[in-house]
Records
---
Amino acid sequence: MGKDFLSLTDFTSEELMETFKLAAQVKKLTEEGKCPQPFKGKTFGIIFHKPSLRTRVSFETGIYQLGGYSLFITDKEIQLGLRESIYDVAKVLSRYLAGIVIRTFNNDDVIELAKWAEVPVINALTDLLHPCQIMGDLMTIIEKKGSLEGLNVAYLGDGNNVANSWLNAAYMLPLNVTIACAEATPPDPEIFHRASDSGVGKVRIVHDPIAGVENADVVYGDVWASMGQKDKSSEKSQALRRFQINDELLKHAKSDVIVMHCLPAERGREITDDVMDGPHSAIFDQAENRLHAQKAIMMKIIPSTKR
Ligand code: CP
Ligand code: NVA
């Protein structure tokens, strides 16, 4: 197992499955008031250059439950590559911390930070990827459906960081992932082609929302304009309005479909209130599982002997 978790592809398929198993065990232990505390005396840096509710709170809470302490660091303190080089930031933080969690814009900055850091680095979202989100989501799907094998996941909307991480999930695991998006909003072509050429699972891109959700076990949504792209909001809404997740569209999925959304949602835009709060919704269970999945990721990669 590598030192970092920057993408789902940093773990092998077996390591991903072991992580879901560990996450379920740690969830149960936490509910019983017996959460393990391997991080006693350890401090983690949480560097965020974009807003966050779930990711920040679940990482900080998870680190605390595992016995550690977390420092929330914004761009007021660290301007990667501006106030000082990424190399220098990585070297200095490695002298203090047991691990670094980072949310920023450019995925290459995270790769560079991890290259020079001597402690594990976890990607908490970039413009390209959101791997921790998909780990919590896959854990939730296993809870609801028993296994991932052969399931049809339909992602509707913008071909963004979450869509790209779903393609990586199909690259690593036996899932069928459909990205239903507008022609103008595709996922990353390189990530798509790697998954379609040599994935464990299958991927496809469709431009018809009904074809996208046909036979789906999971229907998944995200905002149409991501953080850092809010100026493109009306353009994206125009392109994606056909892809709204609503009761009418869900009639074309399997009758026991579960609906997921990474949140934050723009209710009434990419998903209706009826669906978000309806009987198929797993949205708040999936938000909770961010906590458990991330605890398992940290337990897998943070050595108990280091500072
Ligand atoms: N889903 C998610 O990552 O939410 P936040 O942006 O609030 O962390
Ligand atoms: N695609 C969204 C995900 C938010 C968790 C964004 O990047 O804003």
---
Amino acid sequence: MGQNLRLMMLSLEGLSVGDAFGEQFFNPANLKYLNAQALPPGEWKWTDDTHMALSIVEMLKEEGTIDPDALIKKFAYRYSKEPWRGYGWGAARLLSKIAEGGDWRELAPKLFVGGSYGNGAAMRVAPLGAFFNNDMKRIVKEARKSAMVTHAHPEGQAGAIAVALAAGLAAQEQTFKPSVFISIVAEWTQESEVKEKLLLASKISEDDFDYAVEALGTGQRVSAQDTVPFCVWVAAHCANDFEKALWKTVSAGGDLDTTCAIVGGIVSLSCKKIPTNWLDHREPLEG
Ligand code: RVK
Ligand code: MG
């Protein structure tokens, strides 16, 4: 397996473990494990975050580039098979219309006002950043294409671009100071609230966890703006410790499956591996 493919698969493993892990803590019975920082027992089922990432990975394996028309078909096909994976309202509506022959170019801009700025384009994109790891310009271009089929709003796309860039940086051999890591991501991200909050995040030290949570947000609003900057902040500060990164992410609350999917997709790359006992809990991936 080529190096880019290997990194993409590692990021997919991290994303899916994060997604499935985070989802466990929506179950009140599992809160005792959160307090004890002990892994919840049993199989952890993954959600739409992983389901959509599988289509991106498949597309890149087949074509080496994102073809938006082919990608939206893959998203719609998987949605039609397992619509119960916990999809966002807008995504579910769009994907059912695509399955009936609709065109994403017409449908996506009509979701909400100005298109969706949900965190759904960001939650699925880390493996793409890993695949194009050493080419920041290409990451921006491919991440935007992967986002626009569902997320017409510039904030939704900026969120995807920022996460893909963070994954690309994490996949590199070089290690970065957290503030530098976040600043590089911000620098390459288009003008947006996501970018402004990344610039703020680059100035928040690791000790200021509560302030980071409050100022950046943890996905309570399910928007890219309210989700991505905090995830990049955690990934930058816990680059060498997968477990610490994910425990910190869930302890912040918010949109747990998605914040953990984003952090897991990035930190798996900088850590270069995922603890086996975490992987063992995750529902197997398809195929
Ligand atoms: C359930 C106002 C907007 C908006 C706009 C809000 C799954 C809506 C995943 C919308 C992730 C939500 C998440 C999510 C991924 C978006 N004006 N509100 N212009 N744009 N919103 O529906 O794939 O968990 O409340 O497009 O981005 O695990 O329902 O889906 O947590 O953001 O959903 O946006 O969501 P959607 P998505
Ligand atoms: Mg989900």
